């Protein structure tokens, strides 16, 4: 369990799997003896939000609870955006490069290579489409919803829109992105002929497994934190009687 | 997913409620009943079937006859022992449960043990995974994986191209996979088609 008094360097030495989270909060290393709270404060990060996300990441049983409702939706949206950037700029290109290297040095037939690279290219396309849909439509909608809720009277035009759209519809079509990656791992582990470059092959499998876990945790933040709170806010705005 | 039914027979109220709170946060578990003494547990088990029993050492010792008479129960029993793992004091009885949890164990380890049991208990994965797909859809996904176009599939199965399209839409809807490459890999990892059929046969 990570607490606010713990020295930040211990968070990293004890749980290196949390490293991908740091850039998402714009936290850089070189912590010295500073506590989690101090480091967060220095970087303008909401410490409670950091703790919730870090602990959720470590605990497979974690159910985001009351803790997460203390933060503005804006904080959650920012976190989701930087996670998306991490997937697009770092995680996905990283594993893609390794897959290509693995294919280049392999004894696979042309068709087997085409199967893997074709699969990954299509996956990447779906992935980018999914993320840009969220970044360009869903998240701005959430921010606008939160802004409207602080106004004395909701913009009638926005209210009109709200009557025909709900975040629950997004939830319905919110397909999980990790299943296809698991298929790719299974393909390598069970069905493709073995690779000579074991090191590289294992790195690819490790990267895929880490990405799958990250995507599952991320989907949890969206499904269990973002969507319920947005739905609640939608309700509230719709049920506020027109002034006058 | 079918949930596994648990009953808890633990004399310490605090330990019992602690266990309930761990189980409640895990997926795939239903707590059927809680007991604090041996007698009601014994009469319950004579009439009801359960998947797992989590039982404290003292209740286990007090209901030893039951476990001797129904040896199958031992496979379902998780014994709660005092202290740390490796340092336990042996119980009175000479029968042993297969799995045990120690009171001083970390939550992660307890969860890990229970999850292991649940996985064992899960129905074995069938050879060909078609639970989600109809036989017709399975045939179509095979042909798609072999590189056939909708037109070719329609001719081969004596269907209209429109019907094939509808099947394809349903398949994509069920699996959440739209691309041909995605469907192909799905078909391979679910044993609908072999990788040799995909990669060595020329599409016709």
Describe this structure in words.
- The complex is a heterodimer of chains A (244) and B (204).
- With 244 residues, chain A is mainly alpha-helical.
- Chain A has helices at 8-14, 21-24, 36-42, 47-58, 73-104, 110-150, 156-164, 167-172, 178-191, 198-239.
- Chain A has two domains: 8-58, no CATH class; 73-239, no CATH class.
- Chain A is built from ten helices and no strands.
- The termini of chain A are far apart.
- The model of chain A has no long low-confidence stretch (mean pLDDT 88).
- The longest helix of chain B is centred in the middle third of the chain and has 15 residues, at 107-121.
- Chain B is an alpha/beta fold and 204 residues long.
- In chain B, helix 7 (135-145) packs across helix 9 and helix 8 packs across helix 9.
- Classes of the chains: A mainly alpha (244), B alpha/beta (204).
- The A-B interface holds A 60-61, 63, 109, 111-112, 115, 118-119, 121-123, 125-126, 175-176, 179-180, 183-184, 186-187, 190-192 and B 22, 25-26, 107, 111, 176-182, 184-186, 188-189, 195, 198-200.
* Share of β-strand residues of chain B: 5-15%
How much helix, percentage-wise, in residues of chain A?
A: over 70%
Pair of chains with the largest interface and how many residues each contributes: A-B, 25 and 21 residues
Low-confidence stretches of chain B: 125-130
- Determine the number of helices of chain A (DSSP H or I, runs of at least 4 residues): 10
* Proportion of residues in helical segments of chain B: 40-55%
Q: Describe the biggest sheet of chain A?
A: none
Overall geometric form of chain B: elongated
CATH topology term of the largest domain in chain B: Rossmann fold
What structural class is derived from the secondary structure elements of chain A?
Answer: mainly alpha
Taken in chain order, the helices and strands of chain B follow as: EHEHEHHHEEHHHHHH
Compute the average pLDDT of chain A.
88
Count up the domains of chain B.
2
Q: How many strand elements of chain B?
A: 5
Number of domains of chain A: 2
């Amino acid at each position: 369990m990570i607490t606010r008094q713990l020295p930040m360097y211990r968070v990293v030495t004890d749980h290196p799997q949390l490293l991908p989270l740091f850039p998402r909060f714009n936290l850089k290393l070189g912590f010295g003896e500073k506590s989690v709270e101090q480091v967060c404060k220095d970087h303008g990060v909401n410490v409670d939000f950091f703790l919730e996300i870090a602990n959720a990441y470590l605990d497979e049983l974690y159910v985001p609870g009351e803790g997460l409702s203390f933060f503005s939706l804006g904080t959650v949206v920012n976190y989701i955006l930087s996670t998306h950037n991490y997937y697009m700029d770092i995680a996905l290109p990283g594993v893609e490069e390794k897959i290509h290297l693995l294919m280049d040095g392999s004894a696979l037939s042309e068709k087997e290579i085409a199967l893997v690279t074709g699969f990954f290219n299509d996956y990447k396309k779906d992935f980018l489409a999914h993320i840009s849909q969220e970044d360009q439509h869903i998240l701005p909608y959430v921010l606008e919803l939160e802004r409207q809720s602080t106004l004395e009277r909701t913009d009638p035009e926005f209210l009109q829109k709200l009557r025909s759209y709900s975040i629950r519809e997004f939830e319905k079509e919110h397909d999980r992105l990790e299943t296809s990656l698991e298929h790719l791992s299974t393909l390598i582990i069970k069905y493709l002929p073995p690779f000579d470059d074991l090191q590289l092959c294992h790195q690819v499998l490790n990267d895929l497994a880490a990405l799958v876990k990250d995507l599952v945790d991320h989907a949890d933040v969206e499904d269990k934190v973002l969507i319920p709170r947005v739905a609640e806010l939608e309700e509230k705005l719709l049920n506020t009687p027109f002034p006058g | 997913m079918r949930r596994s039914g648990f009953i808890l027979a633990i004399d310490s109220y605090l330990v019992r409620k602690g266990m309930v709170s761990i189980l409640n946060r895990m997926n795939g578990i239903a707590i059927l009943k809680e007991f604090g003494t041996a007698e009601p547990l014994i009469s319950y088990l004579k009439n009801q079937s359960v998947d797992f029993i989590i039982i404290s050492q003292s209740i286990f010792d007090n209901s030893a006859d039951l476990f001797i008479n129904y040896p199958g129960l031992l496979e379902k029993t998780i014994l709660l022992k005092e202290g740390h793992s490796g340092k336990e004091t042996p119980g009175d009885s000479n029968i042993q449960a297969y799995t045990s949890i120690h009171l001083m164990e970390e939550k992660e380890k307890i969860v890990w043990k229970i999850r292991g049991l649940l996985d064992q208990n899960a129905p074995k994965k069938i050879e060909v995974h078609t639970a989600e797909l109809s036989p017709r859809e399975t045939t179509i996904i095979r042909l798609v994986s072999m590189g056939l176009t909708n037109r070719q599939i329609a001719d081969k199965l004596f269907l209209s191209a429109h019907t094939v399209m509808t099947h394809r839409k349903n398949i994509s809807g069920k699996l959440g996979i739209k691309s041909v490459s995605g469907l192909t890999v799905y078909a391979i990892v679910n044993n609908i088609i072999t990788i040799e059929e995909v990669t060595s046969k020329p599409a016709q």
